[in-house]
Fold:
Amino acid sequence: MKSVVILGSTGSIGTQTLDVIAAYPEKFEVKALACSKNISFLKEQIDRFHPQAVAVEDEEKAAHLRKQVKIPVLSGRDGVMQIAATKADITLNALVGIGGLEPTLAAIAAGNDIALANKETLVTGGSLVMQAAKDKGVNMLPVDSEHSAIWQCLKGDKQCKKISLTASGGAFRGYTREMLQNVTAAQALKHPTWNMGVKVTIDSATLMNKGFEVIEAMHLFNMPVEGIDVLIHKQSIVHSMVEFSDGSILAQLSYPDMKLPIQVALNYPERGDVKFSPLDLTAQPLTFEMPDLDVFPCLKIAMDCAKQGGAAPVILNAADEVLVDYFYRGLIKFYDVPYYICKAVDKLAARDFQLTPECIRETDARCREYLISCLPGR
Ligand SMILES: NC(=O)c1ccc[n+]([C@@H]2O[C@H](COP(=O)([O-])OP(=O)(O)OC[C@H]3O[C@@H](n4cnc5c(N)ncnc54)[C@H](OP(=O)(O)O)[C@@H]3O)[C@@H](O)[C@H]2O)c1
Structure:
């Protein structure tokens, strides 16, 4: 039996992880769960999967849940960190935002393998996290479908010359700059192929999600940004590709379903045996196009921040978290997102920076403070 801790169990990835675990009752046991505030859903998960402890970040909601269950209900950020530090075979981190970074580090320190959905962990703390995992001898198992695809193709092969990340193109694929001027969050949330949480769906619509994935791939596969390109592939069937030094290309194909990369990560080093819908390659053509960086500047900004390194990716991430929230609340327009990200990076990225949790936290806070002081409708 492998023991699993799930951080963010009530979200899109967390829920699908529990679906995968339910399919293997003899293989996995749920050791602990954590969420932010959705206690009614968490209570259902406790009744079904019997974890030893849970954490709810919201103190009031945690107090409420304590009256309904017999297991320890930890609370606040400290409670989430305690659950993250719980010894287990695997910690699956499906938290959203930079709040996932320190829990990943805590789980690594506990010696747990990491199944990583929280891409912000590597966007903000990439080298720090990869070094910590190496020092501790734990596996970093990608859950993002693109990175899972690359990882499955590479199987540790070091002679990879290029990585091609595929992108569905999000809700606004094919739009012009003019069409994007007045789009709303409700439109951005209509993703054509994936059903995901709010933040990552809006990031898919701006292509910032793909920019984050470029940075994630750099760290996971030790590849410079120049060795990674992005292709718009609207069918979301080829989940990414790797090109080797002899020019040969390997790709991983399947219908879009996050339960597949989750199953791959949880079962490592074996493969799971739950079968997904068989792929009919005659049912649709597979097409690939270059992204339009003028229409979707967030992708280019992210790649520039990746090249710049230092504080730039942390500022990129913090600015995007603030701006997506403002866009979601209808306070700013689509192109305000890249505009204000560039403003924050220009203003703050040249500062002294060290890749430590404290400095990342401080840089993140400074960026949020700066942006909130210059944005409308605080
Ligand atoms: N969804 C996908 O298909 C997909 C694919 C690839 C990668 N990812 C990545 O996976 C991560 C999770 O995405 P998602 O779509 O699953 O997000 P989501 O649906 O918004 O779920 C986020 C989860 O984290 C919990 N949470 C949020 N803030 C928290 C906090 N401060 N403390 C404790 N728990 C907190 C939420 O709890 P409540 O429910 O109580 O609010 C929820 O359980 C993101 O980094 C995303 O980019 C997602």
Notes: The chain has three domains: 2-142, 155-253+279-297, 309-378. The domain at 309-378 is CATH 1.10.1740.10 (Rna Polymerase Sigma Factor; Chain: A). Residues 357-374 form the longest helix (18 residues). The chain has a mean pLDDT of 96.
